[in-house]
Structures are given as structure tokens and as C-alpha cells.
Amino acid sequence: MAFPHRPDAPELPDFSMLKRLARDQLIYLLEQLPGKKDLFIEADLMSPLDRIANVSILKQHEVDKLYKVENKPALSSNEQLCFLVRPRIKNMRYIANLVNADKLAGRTRKYKVIFSPQKFYACEMVLEEEGIYGDVSCDEWAFSLLPLDVDLLSMELPEFFRDYFLEGDQRWINTVAQALHLLSTLYGSFPNCYGIGRCAKMSYELWRKLEEEEDGETKGRRPEIGHIFLLDRDVDFVTALCSQVVYEGLVDDTFRIKCGSVDFGPEVTSSDKSLKVLLNAEDKVFNEIRNEHFSNVFGFLSQKARNLQAQYDRRRGMDIKQMKNFVSQELKGLKQEHRLLSLHIGACESIMKKKTKQDFQELIKTEHALLEGFNIRESTSYIEEHIDRQVSPIESLRLMCLLSITENGLIPKDYRSLKTQYLQSYGPDHLLTFSNLRRAGLLTEQAPGDTLTAVESKVSKLVTDKAAGKITDAFSSLAKRSNFRAISKKLNLIPRVDGEYDLKVPRDMAYVFSGAYVPLSCRIVEQVLERRSWQGLDEVVRLLNCSEFAFTDMTKDDKASSESLRLILVVFLGGCTFSEVSALRFLGREKGYRFIFLTTAVTNSARLMEAMSEVKA
Amino acid sequence: MDCYTANWNPLGDSAFYRKYELYSMDWDLKEELRDCLVAAAPYGGPIALLRNPWRKEKTASMRPVLDIYSASGMPLASLLWKSGPVVSLGWSAEEELLCVQEDGAVLVYGLHGDFRRHFSMGNEVLQNRVLDARIFHTEFGSGVAILTGAHRFTLSANVGDLKLRRMPEVPGLQSAPSCWTTLCQDRVAQILLAVGPDLYLLDHAACSAVTPPGLAPGVSSFLQMAVSFTYRHLALFTDTGYIWMGTASLKEKLCEFNCNIRAPPKQMVWCSRPRSKERAVVVAWERRLMVVGDAPESIQFVLDEDSYLVPELDGVRIFSRSTHEFLHEVPVASEEIFKIASMAPGALLLEAQKEYEKESQKADEYLREIQELGQLTQAVQQCIEAAGHEHQPDMQKSLLRAASFGKCFLDRFPPDSFVHMCQDLRVLNAVRDYHIGIPLTYRKYRYKQLTIQVLLDRLVLRRLYPLAIQICEYLRLPEVQGVSRILAHWACYKVQQKDVSDEDVARAINQKLGDTPGVSYSDIAARAYGCGRTELAIKLLEYEPRSGEQVPLLLKMKRSKLALSKAIESGDTDLVFTVLLHLKNELNRGDFFMTLRNQPMALSLYRQFCKHQELETLKDLYNQDDNHQELGSFHIRASYAAEERIEGRVAALQTAADAFYKAKNEFAAKATEDQMRLLRLQRRLEDELGGQFLDLSLHDTATTLILGGHNKRAEQLARDFRIPDKRLWWLKLTALADLEDWEELEKFSKSKKSPIGYLPFVEICMKQHNKYEAKKYASRVGPEQKVKALLLVGDVAQAADVAIEHRNEAELSLVLSHCTGATDGATADKIQRARAQAQKK
């Protein structure tokens, strides 16, 4: 099973360097506050931190106790407090409250705030407004890239999606540019750059600026990575909204993979304890099934179990010496494999149980119908029933969005009725969620007139300077038509199948969605790489309504080896799903490429919807 | 060539001193030097003359005039002295002219006579007037020492970081000391003064009498004292014509000399070379110059004119009205090569090369001689080194030629020293040029503080930009250190030319600077702004590629709006934020909001900030924009977050609904009104029935009612809120099944025809594991879903029958997939048979 890579597939660069760099920097920062100290860590940073420096490393550098930054007063008695936080105003308030409480009590302690991945002026402002700017020392921990796997780098910034695509806040773009700069410093600059989307373009431009400012040094390096492709999440919402059926994606949808590891509950481990399992290429069993369609996984696992049994069985008929050999060399590996195998079988069972309960087949059928664009009425009533039955607020919302995007917005009647139904089922506070979804272009109404273009032209008239282009861009993102149907036709996203799609031996990337749909994002990457430009894709770009760019640095291109030219860094701004990762891995195997993924965070439909939801405080 | 050593004068057995002309002076002085206050900067620096310093008349023609010349006598500046009487002049290490006035004020001028700043030496000095002043150089910078009319000393060791020190009183001092000087020992500046036969040393704390060891008897007063360039040595001239030379610490005597001239010398300075054992002092009288050292004889020169001595690191510069000369000890390498009848390897090599040029075979002989002694390397080195000490390019060339000739016969002679010497000499010759007038010696350039960077700075200071750039290019200095730095200086000078229009200046600067790396346009712009040329500054900023650099200056120039758009262009949100807060304080609220309105990026950034920190401002922002949609959302959010009481929440929702109406979003308005009604109702339900109703959704409210057995109320609710039938049926079905009220469920199912069909009834019953009830409903399921229903209740056989009856292939497969094991074997066969039959047809 599991398709092997072509023999000429390029080697991946060693990304563990990024971890070491981050660890050394953190240790340096901790040492800046000599002596015993308590460390307050923001919840979101705990898992990433754990991947970089575990508790014993922290203890080595005189971290006494660890606390979580939360809405509770801290009971630390240490004389030195260190805060490791994301640059958020909320955190600043927390710190300010703590410091001011100390002040009231007449207590003086040393405070140090470490911002990761960078500090924002607004945070310092808040510290100043709260009157504690002079009491704390601020530092930056430029930890922006966490290698989750050999080919997957995550910035672990889930808020990127909401901040940029909903609030229009561009502050993380600088962080992205810095991360790209770091990569190009370590692994050589990228000779070929492509991108689509406004954020991609801005990140790219900022990164170029950084490269230009830092002259010399990196220029002479042989590029290790031949291509970089930047992609905004809003170029392709559809793929992210679909239910995932590839094993890794399904595990993410069902159990939620957090920072590369997953908590398998008692129902999976078949014991009374939960187990935290790291899911990456090091897990041999997982590595073979992660990219597989779920329907194949069981078969594979049982085959594997049989093989394992056979290997165990070899014991019989061994003489003492062979047995000794077996115990000392193979047994440990077999046991490990055994353990992993039983875990994944447990996970599969658990997934099956959950999915059958929720009429998974029906759901998938509806999704496919939406993607292909037939039986819209039927799908709409399915969604309605879904809402009426209160199956799941997030799932219902997801289906509504999928319907809206594939259909270029809902027809006014459905738009109203579905929303009304939804509010009745899941509570009226979701009115705000709908306003968010509308703003992000995820759930819209088919408008007869284009009210937004009117605003747009008015504004462009008002402002004549350079920024005007950016404003119109901003508005066009609001007014975005998805044009999914037309794009799908142009790019042939719905494969025509004669007979059953063979999921065991997939022919194209559509296998990640049971052969029903080729992920749009991956198709764009494929097409551009094939042409090594956007040529001939003008119509698609126009339909996507995004600005695209391509740039080839001939001097560097000449220097790049043919091997590195088949190494491609794909940057997902706003998150990527495991299905997309699997699809591109498949493409890589087919074409002899290797893909490296850089994402602001690993996402899925539920995370996307949650980011848009307005939660009651 | 024969007379090359003609100007060499031996002092004792081991050293020669020579004096050669640097320049013939171009300055055409009318006055005698003695009528002027004179100050010359070390390291071949400029000369300042203050003419008529002592005239008190106020007539314009008689006013003192301050002239500044280069070392070659080229005029650099001339200005009429309009301030108070000057006591002393001196140059700082940065080549700034310090003019110490009688009232203790020190005026600082630039090389081109431009006034820089002034400072005062304190009140005490002001009251007692300045009697005498010295400018001195230490490793910390340039200091000023002042002797006041009250015979007290005040001193500042570094004028750049002015700290005044009043030195302790000298006991019993009634008149001015006969001579005094500043010393610098252990990084502390001290003052040594002579009163009659006594010497006193003043430091911060105390005044102590000192006696030089081995001083000849009979001294009744000291007429002159001199401290060496490096503060290591001290020379004292007594009224007996006796000169004592020793260490500045006064612990050791080096030598003494009696010149038998009792007249006080005009000047006395040290003339020594670093790392040389020879110590010599040059003493100047009106018409006589004497070099004395550790030798019974002295060297004597006659001075034709009034001359002035400038101590240098490795010799003494002597200038008069007509000439500028340099007197120094002949360096070892030169001595070895040029000494008469020298057989040193360098001398032989020089000779060999000359013969070679004459095509004489003697060249070979000489060369052999050196090689036989194995001294060729040494010979080459000597020639290279000697070339550095020569002033005349011809002589430099012949020495270098000899070195290059010698190199040919060496296998592995590292080329660096030769190459560097050639380069250095080219640079030195260039700056020594008459027009430039910086007579640097090789030693000063190479060995001491004066690096190439400093030299470039000095050229820039003299506005000799092209030469500086040529030097950089010649030496291939990295652009950032070299050319760009100079261009930046040039640009800063250029912006001060007020007679040129802004456009021309900006264009000229951009043409020259282009995109040279390391040039900061914002620095130049800052300079332009400093000169009051705001428009020019803005133009220059346009060329600055880094927006981050543009913004702070734009803010300073109060071009906040431009700053904002630049910040936005930069993509750096922090920068945008900085400008925003600046704008917020600068503009009134309305204008601020208007500015934001045109900048969506800034607006969203500010909104994000307000959302967390200033909610009220956020509301105002939406109000200002008439953004009723967002305003509505804002109030809804407020109704959840801020308000505890129902009344408050309803009120907030009412405001929100009004806003939605204004935004023409009737859907949202209606939804909000429904929410208000629901809230009120929930409140009533809680009051009347108890339990938890608040904040439930409509659906959940109805479910809770049914679960609580309030069926009537639930139906009322459904009517009031127009819950669609489908939903109501789902809702009731689920709730009743949860209650396991099968009786009521059956009643309900029969109340009218189900709008959702009967399959859900089957499903839900099965979920509650009630197969018995489920079967009841399975029979009522419509034909399309019948198979599914039957399979759900586990009646595979009947399902198969129905499927066969329907002749539906999909249904058949579905049933088949449910056939498990032996029990359903018969059914499976039946289906297969039916299939086969169907195919036959």
C-alpha cells in the first residue's frame, strides 16, 4: 500500500534546525532574568512550547513553577515573574492587573514579558495606559515556525484567519514575511515565486523588502527550495469546508489534532485513560495510512495486523540463539508497531461509530451534490432538516456556507429562511455570526444590484494616492463572488468518472474527496507549476477575482540544482487542511516533486466556522 | 643625489635630524606672526590666525579678524571678530576652533568659520577674567585649561562633555606663574606650574610641590616648559639657560643641556619619534632654532623670519610667513639606506637597481652581495619602509622601484606590504598636495589614531567630497563605509545651499546618490528639515525606500496624514499604529475619524484596538460613518456582554434593532425584535414555571417546555413565534422520545399527517432502543423510504421483499449489504435470484 516516492524525488531540507534555533533563543531570553522565576504561559502557546522546550529544559533554566495565563488571579509567590504570551491586548490587561495588584500590596517583583512571535506597539501602548510600562521589561521570542512534521511547518497562529479575513487586520503579515525571511536565510532564497491573493502579495512584497534591506550574505547561497507558492485561504474556501475523508484529515475532524498530536480518549485506547499521541512521519503505521482514503484504512490495518502476527509467529521453531536475537533486536520494534496498530484500529472504530451515527453517507452525498451543482433544492432541504434537528451548530453553518459559495450566494428566500431556522435552533446570538460570514464572503445573498461596487467607486474617487488600489482591493474582497461553478468547469475540478472511482489506486487528487472533487487550491498549484507561470490561467484568475503574481530570479534559478527545483514550498495564508496536504503529497509522488507546507495553522471546516462564530462572553 | 644627506644634521653619535620644506606659504600675510594669536591643529591640520587681537579701539578697520588657512596657506575662512577680546585659540581633535575669551566664554567655530556653539568656563572665571588659557588633547578628547586673574586654575578635560573642575589653590601664590602646562597622567588631567624656583603639581585634590631629580643648582626661575605629544616627557628651561629633560612624572631625568642663552625662548616643543630612543627638544628664539638632546652639541638653525612651532607625533612643523617646514629625526630605514657609505642591504639594493637601469653589470654584483648575506628580504623591506618616510614622490618612486626590483629575486615575498605602501603613498601624496594641504606623514597616517576613516572625515570636513570619493574608490572601501557615507555628507551639505531651489537640490542629490546602499535619505531629509526646508525634506523622503524611516520625520514635520499613508504603504502595522496615536492627539476627534475613514487599513487596525480597549470610541466610529449595520452588531454584543438585567438587555437590543432598521437590514431587525420578545417571554416562564429558560434558543425553549410537560405552552410558543411545522414535528418527536412518552408520541403522530414523514419516527425510536415502537411507525413509512425503515428495525427479510417488489437495484444492494451471516442467508439468495431474473428481462 502507501505509494512510494519516485526514486529521483528530492530530499527534504532538515527543518529541525528551526526548533533548535527557537529553543536557543528562548533559553537566552530566560537567562536574561537570572535566578528562580515563575513562568506564565498563554494557553495557546503551551503545546507549541512543549514541542520546543519541555518542562525539564525550562527547569534547567531556573523556571520554578508554570502557570497558565487565564482569567484567574495567580498565586505565585516568586520574586521574579516571566510571561510568555501572544501579543494580545487581553494578555496585557491580565499582566497589568497582576502588577497593579502587587503595587497596591506594596510588593515589588521583577516582571518580564516575552512576546511571541513579536510584540506589537498596541500592546506596549496598553501597558503604558495601565501605568506599568516602566515596571516590566519586554522581549520578543521570534518563534514563528514550528516544524510539525518533516514537510509541514506551522506558524501556530489560528487567529490569523479571523484577524485578516474577517477584521481586515494586517498585522500578522509582517510575521509571515519574517518567517519567509528566516527560511530563505537558512535554506537559500527561492528562485521562483508565485502567489495568489491580496495577503499573499503583501507578504511577498514585505519579504522582498526584508531581503533587499539585508544585502549580501544570503545572495550567494545555493537555493535549496526551488519554488515558493503563496496562497490566500479565501481563494479556496470550498476545499476547507468539505468533510475530510483521508485518514489524517478524518482524525483531525473527529479528534482534533492539536499542534501535531492528538488526545485519544478511552474509547480509542480501550483502557480507562486518555493518551496523547504524536502524529507524524515517525509513527510508522500512521505514516503509511495518513494519506489514504478512509475506506482503505481498515483493510490495510488488518493486513498489517496479520503480518505482525506472522512475524510474532516466527518465534515458534526458533532455537535459543535465534530467539535471543529476536528478543534483542526485533521484539521491541514489533511491540511498538503493535501498540501503534492497536491505537489506530481503535481510532478507526471510534470514527466509524461516530460517523454512522450521524448519517455520514447522507452528508457526503449532499456535499458532493453541492460540489457538482445538482439537486440544489434537495440539498437545501437536507440542510434545513439538519438545522431543524439541531445536529450540530458548526456543521449546519458549514453546510450553509458550502451551499452559498458553490452557488455564488443563496437566493434571497433561502438566505432568509435558513438564517431564521438557524437562529431558532441555535440561538439568536448567531445573528452576529451571520454578519461576520457575510463580511468574509462565506455566506452571502445573491444580490440583484451591486451595492458594494458603488461604494467602491465612490471611495476610489475620494482617494487618489497609491493606497487607492489597496482600498479597492479591500472592497473587492468584500464583494467577492466565488464563481465556483465556472472555475470548477475551467479547471475541471469534478472528474468525470466512468464506473467506480478506484480509491485504492487513485488517478488524481480527487481521491482525497472520494473521487468527487479535486481541491481547488491544489489544482491551482498544479497548474501554475506545470506552466511555471500564470500564463493561460487569466480567465481563472479573473473568476477568482484575486491578484496573482509570479517572479523568477534568473540568477538564482541558474544556481539551483535540478533537485531543488523540484522542491516546492506552499504557503497557506489562513490555514490549510490535511486533505490539501495529502492531495499535494499525492501530486508530488506522481510528478517527482516534494512539497513543503507552511501554514499559519492547520485548519479544518470546524475551526474555520468557529473562527467566524461570535461567542457569548 | 649626492647631496641627499646634505640637510641631515647629526645630534650626538646615533641620530640625524633633518628639516625639509612642506610648502611655500600662499597666504600673503601682511602682519607678522608675532602680532597675531596663532593656533595650528596637529596632524597637519589647519591654522587659525587672529589679527589685531589686542587692539581695544572700536573702529571697524581695526577690529580683530579671524582667518583660517589650510596648512599650505590656502584661505578657508575669514571673519570679522565681533565678540569680546580673545585670550587664546586652539583646535579640538574634531578640528573645531575653540576661542577662549577674556570673560571665560569659549566660542566654537567650524573649519569654514561657521559658528557652532559656545560655552562658559564658569562664574569664577567670568569674575576674575582669563589670564591665560591652553587647549590640550587627551584620549578623552580636547580639554581647556584656564588661569584666572585670581591665579586659580579651572579645567575641563573634554569640551564635548563639559565638566568644569576648579583646581586647588596654590599656597602663597601672589603673581602669575612664570610658566605652566597641562599634564595627563593615569587618565587624569593635571597642571604643572612654576613659581620662581619652585614647581607645583595640581590635581583635583591637592597641590603638591615637586622637584625634578638631578636638576642643576642655581635655578631661580623656570622660563618655559614643554610636555611631549604623548604626555610622557617633560622639558624645563631655566633662567640659567639650562634645559632639563625627563619623564613627565618627574621621577627620572633623561638628560640635560646647557645652551647658555638666558633669554626666554619663544617656544619650546618636543621633537621625538614614537619608539625611538632619541629624545630631543626644539627651542625657538626670535632668530634662532636649536635642537638639543642627549649630546654635548646641539643643532642650530637660523630663523630668517618670525616662525611658529607645531608639535607633531613624529616631529615638529615650523611655519613662517613664507614657508612651512618639517623637522624630524631621520627614521632608521632611511638612515640605513642613505647614510654615507652605508652597506646596509637596502642601500645596496637601491644601488643595484640604479645600476640595473644604467644597464651596468654592477647591478648583478650588488645583488649577489646582498644575496650572499641572505638579506634580500630585509633589503626589500627596508626600501619599502624608507619609501614611506620620504616626502618627495621621486624619491618614493625610486625606493619602491628598488623594492620591486629586489622582489623579483625572491621566491615568496608576501606582496601585501608593498601593495599597501603604494596605496598609502598615493593617498598621502594626494592629500599632501598643495591644494589640499594636509601634510600628513606616513607614520601619523598608519600608526596612530588617524585611520583612513578619520582622514576621510577630515576631507569631508573640508568639503573635498570628490577627492574623498576617489580615495574610497581607489582603496575599494565597502560602499557603506566609504562612498555612501561621503555622499550622504555631501547631500547634507547640499541641502544647506539656500540659493538653490528645492527641486534642483532634490534632483541633484538623487542623481548622485541613486540607490547607493547605506545612504539614508531620511537622515539627509532630517538635515534639510533642520535647515528649515520642510518641502525639500519631503521631496527627499520620497527617495527613501524604507517607509519605516520616512514616518518618524514626517510626524516631526507635522505631515501626519502623509505619514499615515506612508506607514500604510510600508505594511508595518506597528508603524501605522504609531501614526494613529499621534494623529489622535494632534487632531480633534472629528478630523481624526475623517482621516481614518479614508484609510481602511488604519481604520480596521484602530477598530481592533478599540474593540479591546475603548469600546465607546468604537461606537463613535460607527456613528461617524453612519455604519448602522455595525452599530447594530455593536449593541447586540453589548446586550450579551455588558448588561446583566433583562431590562438593560432588552433596551440594548431595541437600540440594535433601530440601527438595523436604519441599515435597511430588516431581517436582522426582525430577528432582534423576536429576540426581545423571546427574552421577555423566557423571563415570564422562569417566573411562572421556575427552571432555566433565559438565553435558550427558541427551539430549546419549546423543547424544555415539552420536557416539562407544558405542551400547551409549547404550542402557544410555536404559534407566537411562527415555528414551522417541520421544525415543530422534529422538536416534539425528539422531546417525547427523550421523555419516553410513547403514548403521547403515538397520539402526536396521529394528530395529522406528518410533514417530515415517518422515517424519523423509526430512527428516533431505534435511537432510544425501542424496537417495538419503531416497528409501529415503520409500517407507516412511505414507499420510497420503506426499505430503509425496515432495515432500521432489523427486518431484513421484509425489506428484501419490498425491494424486490420495487425492482430497485440500489435498494437491493443496500439490503444485501445488511445481510449478515447464516441467518439472512435465505434472504440473500432470494435477492440474488430476483436480480438474475431482472437481468434476464
List the helices and strands and how they pair.
The complex is a heterodimer of chains A (about 625) and B (about 850).
Chain A lengths: L15 H16 L5 E6 H10 L2 H6 L2 E7 L10 E6 L3 H16 L5 E6 L5 H9 L6 E5 L5 E4 L2 E3 L4 H8 L4 H17 L4 E5 L1 H16 L13 E6 L4 H5 L5 H9 L5 E4 L1 H4 L5 E4 L5 H6 L4 H20 L6 H38 L2 H13 L3 H13 L4 H14 L5 H15 L3 H11 L10 H12 L4 H12 L5 H8 L28 H12 L6 H7 L3 E5 L1 H6 L7 E7 L4 H14 L2 E6 L5 H8 L5
Parallel strand pairs in A: 1-2, 1-3, 3-4, 4-5, 7-14, 8-9, 9-13, 13-14
Antiparallel strand pairs in A: 6-7, 8-12, 10-11
Helix pairs in contact in A: 4-5, 7-8, 13-14, 15-16, 16-17, 16-18, 17-18, 17-27, 20-21, 22-24
Chain B lengths: L7 E4 L3 E10 L11 E5 L6 E5 L13 E5 L5 E6 L5 E6 L5 E5 L3 E5 L5 E6 L2 H6 L1 E9 L2 E8 L4 E4 L8 E2 L12 E7 L2 E8 L2 E5 L4 E4 L11 E6 L5 E6 L3 E6 L5 E6 L8 E4 L9 E5 L3 E6 L5 E4 L4 E6 L2 E6 L2 E7 L2 H7 L6 H13 L4 H11 L3 H14 L3 H15 L8 H17 L9 H5 L5 H10 L3 H11 L7 H12 L7 H12 L7 H10 L3 H8 L5 H10 L3 H11 L2 H14 L2 H9 L2 H14 L1 H11 L2 H14 L4 H17 L3 H24 L8 H10 L3 H10 L4 H15 L2 H10 L7 H9 L3 H8 L4 H11 L2 H11 L2 H10 L6 H16 L1
Antiparallel strand pairs in B: 1-2, 2-29, 3-4, 4-5, 5-6, 7-8, 8-9, 9-10, 11-12, 12-13, 13-14, 15-16, 16-17, 17-18, 19-20, 20-21, 21-22, 23-24, 24-25, 25-26, 27-28, 28-29
Helix pairs in contact in B: 2-3, 2-5, 3-4, 3-5, 3-6, 5-6, 5-7, 6-7, 10-11, 11-12, 11-13, 12-14, 13-14, 15-16, 16-17, 19-20, 20-21, 21-22, 22-23, 24-25, 24-26, 26-27, 26-28, 28-29, 28-30, 29-30, 30-31, 31-32, 31-33, 32-33
Subcellular location (chain B): Late endosome membrane; Lysosome membrane
Protein name (chain B): Vacuolar protein sorting-associated protein 16 homolog
Function (chain B): Plays a role in vesicle-mediated protein trafficking to lysosomal compartments including the endocytic membrane transport and autophagic pathways. Believed to act as a core component of the putative HOPS and CORVET endosomal tethering complexes.
